[in-house]
Write a structure and sequence with these properties.
single chain; alpha+beta; eight-stranded mixed beta sheet
């Protein structure tokens, strides 16, 4: 036996022992699912924090990860263009990540053709009996349980993944340099346009299987949920299609959505007092739900799908569902026709002032005032709203920029109206800035200084979207050599 083969045999034996040790230890480990979320598991996969030797899927197929794929922060599979060897055969495609294996079916990916390119289902913990995950096209793919193969104690991994975002940007060629503010602003604006067109392309892809009403309905629902409840709200919209609300009253719409969501008082593990359940709205909703066709189905959601902790009461998913119910009812059968006529007016105005009026009117269509029960309640039997709007201005702005305008743009494309396309881009370009998030703050730290603060570029929603595209498409993958800021001479290099 050669020295090389002896080393290989030793490494193989060592890894086999290590993997065996982790399997035995993890058989008695019960994950704390209050701490472990999908983002944490995605970071484990992205950082390859597991022993990539002798990996076995839960149906005993040999797995070898050649490339984990590109982290997809938008809709669709979590990692794209991955290269996975399964039983010695190369598979190129997408990877979907979940905390539990049962979430593939809970999220209805098996009914969604967008996930047909997934070649590996990666989960932290296998809580299901389905040895192979089924795609919408009927094919079966392996499921890999990471818990058996992680390469460090869970506590250490929590600490390390918490630093991922900041560590990725510890070094930046822009940081500390003098900026050409005009070039920097135009760079962010160009990136912002690219991000908008990317969102529009995602809508175009959805149009292959969904109509405009359903796309807009799902998009608004997702945006209403912030990060904590965006996925369950979108799932709710998929479980109850927009077409199911035809000719329904506002209370009927609420009853269906709350019932399928598993959030009605009668579905709660903690019953309300008799005084609370006697409220006319609750009585009406419970009665309407019992007589609904949806109540006869068995695939309802439940309380475990929803997050209420660490959320301000007026952002509770119950109020968001009430908001969506009111919006659907007032749009009288068409969400598109609620917003599109106002967008179309932008194609015939010729002054910034009139365009500003149209932008304001679009937001007002979303900024719903609470009516009746939801004036004083954040959840069934719980107050704390102080008569706040069901959808506030900042959330309405986010929905308009990220959901409604991209859908309207594709409507204009399909209508072959270049004039309307240009008008929608003008509306998008001049909306005021959105609420800052961690990515915008991170880019701000990297790019700007006390001498040249961010306010010099007068941030708009479009510029902020450009900052997000910069981070997600360049900074996060450390593609510094392709940095648009450097490429467009937005950094004033010192003369030698």
């Amino acid at each position: 036996m050669t020295e090389r083969s002896q080393i290989d045999e030793y490494d193989h034996s060592k890894n086999k022992l290590l993997s065996k040790e982790f399997r035995e230890v993890d058989q008695v480990y019960e994950p704390d699912f209050d701490k472990i979320d999908e983002d944490f598991v995605q970071k484990l996969w992205n950082g390859q924090r597991f022993f990539n030797a002798n990996l076995m899927s839960i149906d005993s197929r040999e797995i070898r990860v050649l490339k984990p794929g590109v982290w997809n922060r938008e809709e669709g599979p979590d990692f794209m263009h991955a290269e996975i060897e399964i039983n010695g055969k190369l598979h190129v495609g997408d990877v979907e990540i979940h905390v539990k294996s049962s979430e593939w079916y809970a999220h209805k990916h098996h009914l969604n053709s967008r996930y047909n390119r997934v070649v590996l289902h990666v989960v932290f913990f296998n809580d299901d009996f389905n040895l192979r995950t089924r795609l919408q096209n009927g094919k079966r793919i392996p499921t890999l349980e990471l818990l058996k193969w992680i390469d460090a104690p869970i506590g250490d991994l929590f600490d390390e993944t918490a630093q991922t975002e900041t560590d990725a940007s510890n070094f930046c060629r822009v940081t500390g340099n003098r900026l050409n503010i005009d070039n920097l602003k135009s760079t962010f604006e160009a990136l912002g346009t690219e991000r908008f067109l990317e969102k529009a392309d995602a809508v175009r892809l959805l149009r292959t299987r969904l109509n405009f009403e359903q796309i807009l309905y799902e998009g608004i629902m997702e945006a209403l949920g912030y990060s904590q409840n965006s996925k369950p709200l979108r799932e709710l919209a998929q479980r109850v299609p927009f077409s199911d609300f035809d000719q329904k009253s506002e209370h009927e719409i609420q009853a269906i959505l709350f019932g399928v969501a598993g959030l009605l008082p009668s579905q709660s593990e903690k019953p309300l007092s008799e005084k609370e359940t006697d409220d006319p709205l609750i009585v009406a909703l419970e009665t309407l739900w019992k007589t609904s066709e949806h109540a006869k189905r068995s695939d309802h959601m439940n309380a475990s799908h929803w997050q209420f902790g660490k959320i301000r009461p007026f952002n509770y998913p119950t109020r968001r569902i009430a908001a969506m119910s009111q919006l659907i009812y007032h749009c009288r059968g068409s969400l598109m026709m609620c917003f599109l006529p106002t967008c179309e007016r932008a194609a015939i105005v010729d002054t910034p002032k009139l365009l500003g009026t149209i932008r304001k009117e679009l937001l007002e269509l979303l900024m719903l005032e609470p009516i009746g029960y939801w004036e004083t309640h954040s959840n069934f039997g719980k107050g704390g709203t102080q008569k706040a709007k069901l959808i506030g201005e900042s959330r309405a702005l986010d929905i308009m920029v990220n959901k409604i305008l991209p859908v309207a743009y594709i409507w204009a494309v399909e209508s072959e109206s270049k004039k309307l396309q240009d008008a929608i881009l003008r509306l998008y370009s001049d909306y005021t800035k959105l609420q800052e998030n961690s990515i915008i703050r991170q880019v701000g730290k990297q790019v700007f200084t006390e001498a040249q603060p961010m306010r010099l570029i007068k941030p708009t929603a479009k510029i902020q979207q450009g900052m997000m595209r910069l981070y997600k498409n360049f900074c996060a993958d450390q593609l510094c050599d392709l940095c648009p800021i450097l490429e467009h001479n937005a950094v004033l290099l010192e003369e030698s």
